[in-house]
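Q: May I have one protein plus its fold?
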Amino acid sequence: MRWPDMPGPGRWRAERDDIALRFRPLTERDLADAPGWLGEIDLRADRWRDESTRSVVAQGEDGAILAAGIVWTSHAHDDRYWADVVVDPARRRARIGTAMFRHLSGLRARDLPFMTRGYVDDPRLAFAFALGARTIQVVPPARIELVRRTALRPLPGIAPGTEVPMSAIEDANASFYQWIHASWSPVSPEFVAAVNAGLKDDLDLASTAVAVDGQGRPRAVALVYGDTDPPVVCAETVRPDEPDGERLVEGCLRAALDALAERGLAEVEFDGHVTDPHLLPNWAKLAPSGRWFLLVEVPPAR
């Protein structure tokens, strides 16, 4: 089935008779002149990369922008479209967002479902569930106080990232990224370049910790991203069936958190999922705080 490239300026009348909408592509001019509420989601001009990266605005009869929506595909995954919608706060609960979602559904180049994410109390998730979303992944509270790191045991033979070839770290990153996503969001053929793009610049290699085998090959990693405040830590084994994987991840995490604490930091955030088998038990030992986060799949409007 060939999906339409771009419907003509669509029109839709909401359940309330006083709302009529006209849809058109979002432009750079719209971004430059955008009302403040449009900044609630990350927007780009329509077709900023290719035919699978679309964005539109909905205008009222007076020409005022009442909503915006965006859909895109990831270079790392090609099983779903990401989607986001924002509505003028003064015009919410009038089914304008639903109309926007229906329009976005018609812009897909392929018949794939949508995906979005948010904290459990985020209105965007309430909107997604009203559209029929189902949860595909759960992210636990992510804030970790470094004083709690002693709940994890040190492990001999953990090397700092500065002592491991960057190519080996990139291979390890791509390998564990692929297997932790395999059951719920399989990677695309070009995922390696996508997940490793800018990795060398983003990582704090001095705090990154790697468990290596006798030949110096990574078995598990705790990657520390130093380009955020607080730093973000991602950790897992390089292969899903790694013997003693939970212990290896524990040792990597302890070494990474020790290095960060020695520099005077007080907190970090973890990035992972409840299905990460070797990370989650160690994550739980650290008594994380914060909000639960969900990734959900949303069926397209038909």
